Amino acid sequence: GAVVSQHPSRVICKSGTSVKIECRSLDFQATTMFWYRQFPKQSLMLMATSNEGSKATYEQGVEKDKFLINHASLTLSTLTVTSAHPEDSSFYICSARPPPGLAGFPPGVDTQYFGPGTRLTVL
Amino acid sequence: GIQVEQSPPDLILQEGANSTLRCNFSDSVNNLQWFHQNPWGQLINLFYIPSGTKQNGRLSATTVATERYSLLYISSSQTTDSGVYFCAVGRGWNTDKLIFGTGTRLQVFP
After folding, report:
1. Is the C-alpha dihedral spanning B65, B11, A109, A72 positive or negative?
2. pLDDT digits over B16-30, tens only?
3. Cα B40 vs. chain centroid, distance in angstroms?
4. How many CA atoms lie within 13 A of A81 on its CB side?
5. B-chain residues within 8 Å CB-CB of A97?
6. Is residue B67 classed as helix, strand or coil in its secondary structure?
7. Quick one: which of A96, A84, A67, A75 has its CA closest to A121?
8. What is residue B80's three-state secondary structure?
9. Residues of B (38-77) whose Cβ lies below 8 Å from A
10. What's phi and psi for B65, nearest 5 deg?
């Protein structure tokens, strides 16, 4: 259990275009999903927290109009990088958190399960 | 905000060696986890360990919450252990985010 997928795994686009990345929790419903960004040889930086049916909460310094997040269902969140520029090139990772007490998950454990990441290159 | 520092930043081992990775955090937390990011970028959950000691095969972890540090032990390292090890901390339950540490990059050679 606890499988999270991301699509696409790799995308190359031209400057000025928009790119959508999908994050799906395949075998559990996630009330909360998170989006991270990771530059080469650096740590993960949280971009936003996404709750199903409500607006995402963005971290300080993250432009919400540039990084659009939609969490339309309990198993799907999307991140759209609008008008991408070369400085947006990065590794984007999503995670999903199962609600507490969900059957099949260890009780008393608050953790997130991560997708395999999407490598975005903007030319 | 909470600062999370890991040491050493880089570690090179020969297969079979043991190692200890450390995670220091600057404030009290009630959520601490260890992850392994493999060379392809996938993060793998290792331990949820806000306090105490846990073991899973060749890996074990200890968190001393009162002294604000956690240790990850890797015994009899294998080449498949290579990658980056992150600790991540949080201060809430089910509502709060994880703050990732600076990471330890481990390379294990045959």
Report:
1. positive
2. 999 999 999 999 998
3. 18
4. 27
5. 94
6. helix
7. A84
8. helix
9. 40-45, 48
10. -65, -35
